[in-house]
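SAMPLE LOG
Freezer: B-3
Tube label: C17
Construct: single chain, 148 aa
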Amino acid sequence: MTLLAPQKSRTTVLRTVFRLLLGVALLLAGISHLTVNREAFLAQVPTWLPLEGDFVVVASGIVEIILGAALLVLGRYRVQVGWIVALFFIAIFPGNISQLVTQTDSFGLNTDLDRTLRLFFQPVLVLWALWSTGAWKAFREYRAKKRG
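STRUCTURE (predicted):
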């Protein structure tokens, strides 16, 4: 078993449901990047990022749509997709930090307390991606086999 091979083993119904829920959430978030919440997402783009804010919003929206679709339809590759989604959630975390540091109001986060509390939900998303796809479990199994 290699860590990058398609998964042949089955997963639990609960993990599958949570993987699909995360996929739908990413699809909807991505679509909202491109439509109704474009300005709100623009407020989260860090000012220090050397890219045009609108480009970042559109690009991240497209990535979210692709990742959401992948979670929904690429079940055999769920472990690989899980790692990619987790890395994506880590990559966008500076936007949440920037929103706190710059005290930017967006998505109803209008106080420093609200913006700070939101920071604690990003690790939950990372763990959700790793758990629901079986990525963390596959990694542990892979390491155990490597040890012998």
